Amino acid sequence: MITGQHYIGGRWQGQPQADACSFNPALNQSLRWAFAEAGSMELQQVTELAESAALTYRLTSREQRAAFLEHIADNIEALGELLIETVMAETALPKARVEGERGRTCNQLRLFASLLRSPQEEVHEQAQPDRQPLPKPELRLRTVALGPVVVFGASNFPLAFSVAGGDTASALAAGCPVIVKAHNAHPATSELVARAIANAIEQCQMPIGVFALVHARTHAFSEQLIQHPAIKAVAFTGSEQVGMHFQRLIWQRKEPIPFYGELGSQNPVCVLPAYLQQHSEVFAEQLFNSVVMGQGQFCTRPGLVFLLRDAGSDALKAQLQALCRQHIAWAMLTPKIATSYRQQAATLQQTAGVSLLAEGQGEEEGCFTRARIFCTSARTFVEQPLLREEVFGPATLLIECSDVTELEMLLTTLAGQLTATLYASGSEQASVRTLLQALEQKAGRVIVGQMPTGVEVCASMNHGGPFPAASDSRYTAVGSRAIQRFVRPVCYQNVPAWYFDQQASQ
């Protein structure tokens, strides 16, 4: 089923290039699938078709869009083992993880379908023609779709943050056509999911330009795409360096547009001494499992652990050392990601005041990397800014503080985070209040007594935070509120009710 082509305007097109192959990180070798490269012709096609589709797709009823999303979910599930095996081949992720992510992807599509079937949010104020000194007009506040949206797939979630992931699902639910730039780490997976969407387009008789998938390994195509005047919003999950480059390009447009970027997070965990004395062994196991989950490639991996320097911290370090030394090296998603992790780990190990407590077993070759636990003092953490930079991979840094006051001070040095976590006992309530207040200034999700890995997809979830966790801290990338990124408010004054009734019935 894998052709290596783009999906544009209801057709599969483009000539695969022999040097643009998919890659198996577990075997450290290229796969048999080759892929096309988008250029100026594809750029013109996808933007013109998306712009044309925006005029009609925005007028589809909420029920029509809900059915469309449900058909996409059904079609993804119908791919069966072919999809699971393809994801595993391109990512080295275990089967259980891939199956779980497929479930999350389909569930969030159905979540937005359910949202569309609930009553549309509207503020409606009746006219008051007799009001003095001036009459009040009838007013309705509603939202309309922004227009064509570009979605960049994420490397670490080949399904849930990729072709049919949360960004695409929420944009389609909002009434926006979507152009997906397939991630180079899983292009075959991207094509399979795009085929599920293509089938849903036919089943639901949607405009042919409502969705497109393009492959492009050169940055030039992506840069031209986000700068094209037809594009009205961009969703991106990736590094701060690339994300800010895209943001600057968008600021240079004649018409700047929203850029929703998730650009990095260290996800600090604070553990207080009374809790650690009672639950040190359990905490160590939970922490280590969270650090190495998905070989440390979760955006919510706990990369910083703040604790007080005492006997409890010594016990924790010993327990983490034992766990880490037993852990076997495994493959990361791409050679580039693995190389970057090894370089960052080496830099940490060579930093004055930072010690390597333990590392895992096995050779670090190709995409394979070892887990690592580092430790430092509060003073070093303040003096070395690089310790506050994200290390994407199976590593974490313990920071030992003299007291809670010093811990609170260190939190003020952090940039924005997706999550911030606190472990404390009931007797530490006085410290809990001040620490929670400090954490909510830094993170989009504040957690007590649970590790941050794992994001519930629901109406109350917020997956975002102050920069660089998100480029716009007012919005979430996960949950039903993610749809708000792709709509804008419109106030209707004295517009007759039949206009809205007609739209609802279309």
UniProtKB/TrEMBL annotation:
Keyword annotations: Oxidoreductase
GO molecular function list: oxidoreductase activity, acting on the aldehyde or oxo group of donors, NAD or NADP as acceptor
CDD domains: ALDH_KGSADH
Secretion signal, residue range per the UniProt entry: none
Domain of life: Bacteria
Domain Aldehyde dehydrogenase: 21-456
SUPFAM superfamilies: ALDH-like
Matching InterPro entries: Ald_DH/histidinol_DH (IPR016161), Ald_DH_C (IPR016163), Ald_DH_N (IPR016162), Aldehyde_DH_dom (IPR015590), Aldehyde_DH_Superfamily (IPR050740), ALDH_KGSADH (IPR044151)
Pfam families: Aldedh (PF00171)
Stated name of the protein: NADP-dependent aldehyde dehydrogenase
Source organism of this protein record: Alkalimonas amylolytica
